[in-house]
Amino acid sequence: MEKKFYRINQLIKSPKLRVIGDDGKQIGILTLPEAFAKAKESGLDLVEIASTAKPPVAKIIDYKKFVYLEEKRARKSKKSHGGDIKEVRFTPFIAQADFEVRIKRVLRFLDEGNKVRVVVKFVGRQLTKKDFGYEIIRKVKIALAGQCEFESDPKWMGPNLIATVTPIKKIENERNETENQKIDIPPV
């Protein structure tokens, strides 16, 4: 998460500021010394929150509390964004151990809140055996049963069979119980 720099107290250079009080209500347009005196009077900091506005906007608030609230808002927006789409590739003739490793990777991505694109990649003459791709997707569905949802049926995009998986939101206790259980993965 990238930290944003905010000017506070003596670092503010603008001669006039639109000031917002600690209760969130607008105080009005004040000169810099007046705004600084108001902040000092309440025992708080003067933080410039919108330096590009005309006149710049400053808020009377404890600086550490302000930074905490900004970080909290950034985390919440990132969480509601739904995460990224991660991709895990399989082949139509994948070995059992490799299949298990990729299933564990899919589960890790789902636990992080990301969508996962499951790709079965066909090369050369493997394209004549398209049924094996559907079989791999079916085994992935069995291995991930109850832990995710498939958005749609698998689709062909060029030489790849693609299905997208989204996490199911669960209660923390249920997630902890499933982590303690061994993953039942069907043989390939």
From TrEMBL:
Top-rank taxon, per record: Bacteria
Key word Glycoprotein present: no
Gene3D superfamilies membership: Translation initiation factor 3 (IF-3), C-terminal domain, Translation initiation factor 3 (IF-3), N-terminal domain
GO biological process per UniProt: ribosome disassembly
Translation initiation factor 3 N-terminal domain boundaries: 8-76
Keyword Cell membrane attributed: no
CC terms in the record's Gene Ontology section: cytosol; membrane
GO molecular function: ribosome binding; translation initiation factor activity
Location in or out of the cell: Cytoplasm
InterPro entries in the cross-refs: T_IF-3_C_sf, T_IF-3_N_sf, Translation_initiation_fac_3, Translation_initiation_fac_3_C, Translation_initiation_fac_3_N
Pfam families named among the record's database cross-references: IF3_C (PF00707), IF3_N (PF05198)
Physiological role: IF-3 binds to the 30S ribosomal subunit and shifts the equilibrium between 70S ribosomes and their 50S and 30S subunits in favor of the free subunits, thus enhancing the availability of 30S subunits on which protein synthesis initiation begins.
Family: Belongs to the IF-3 family.
Assembly and oligomerization: Monomer.
UniProt name for this protein: Translation initiation factor IF-3
Lineage summary: Bacteria, Candidatus Shapironibacteriota
